[in-house]
Design a protein that fits this description.
By secondary structure, this protein is mainly alpha-helical. The chain has 16 helices and three strands.
Amino acid sequence: MRDISTENYYSKKNKILSVLFFATLIFQTTALRFLFSIENISRISNILILAIWIMYSINSISKDLYSKKVWYYYLIPGIMITLGMLINFTISVSGNLKLIGAYGLTIPWFAYLAIPGLMNSRVINTKILWRYYYYFMLWINIFGLSEYYLLFAGIMEMRELSTPYAVYLAGYSSLLYLLGDGVAYYRYYGCFLEPGTTSMYLLPAIAYAYYQKKYLGIAVFSVALYLTDSLGGFISFVLLIIVFIYTYVGDITRNRILIPMIISLLIGSLAWFIVGDFLMTKYIGKNLSAEVRVDNVTSTISNFPELIINNITGLRLRGSTGEYLKSKNYYGSNFIVGSYLNYGGALGLFGYISVLWMSFSLSFKSIQLKRLSNESKIVFSSLIVIIPFIVQRTTIWESALFAFLFAPTLIRVLKGDNSLFE
């Protein structure tokens, strides 16, 4: 049994993790740091967060307490990504100290590496963290949708907010893109910097609301998702409904393979018949935006051998997108797999592909198991439907939220942990 001093130690660690979780949401994942004008506090906070995660990750990987599966499929790919990024960033920063902020991109991966050790210490409670995430997303979107309505109803005025990414119209808890004529763009941004990003982070919240029977959450998140007008979000939402049907049929029939698969395929075919034309029209309407994304993917794949040879340790960091475009080895930032070749060279690329493969393969395999807990269903269904975003933008893997909310369940699969089940 733990003595009082040990209990106090673990209680303190739990509080630190809760603080890190909300700091991730406020200072790294959302635009709240700009909305609240706390950019300087955010920079200082992120330095401290990086230091804490480095300490936790070193403590985690220095202990040989994990199975071979955890090492091979989880830790080694994470080490490859982190090491590849550190090598490239250090070489780049040595030539230009102004680029030192790039080290912040390693925060999610140091957090990723720290999770196995924190799980072994039993100081990470994912049920509580998922609850935090749900209520954060619920209230921030209730406020955001209220501001969206009040603005377009002519009741509320928003202030102009300039950020390093773009100029927005900002309320108290949400923002909207500011068009050249001074009018707010119609797409819903909420507290994120892009509507596509908003839709991506809404999907796990929708999954949580569905499996936990939070009907208010389903309503709020569905309205928010619709207003983002995100093609990737719409496609993933349809996929999510199919996964919901798959797990529901599997639960009531106690069959996780044949019957649910047949019914899901039928529902999927019906869904495509109903919304296929709508989605294709949306895709065609993207015009240049869609072409850029397709070009990012095809150019990276077709030039892959040359890129590996030329970028063995990664593409040297630049100070702006314009400077990146001058490089013949740069094919945009929409295809996130290609971005990891730029960030961390061969090590970063193959490490990232391994993490994606681990995430998707374990999710597809595990969603077929019987008697899964609600948390397991939330994690696996969310990861499966996020696939379309990999060719569009930075994803959940580029946030420490992946380490907090998703990584522990994947580790439990690798360990054969019974806590995956009801």
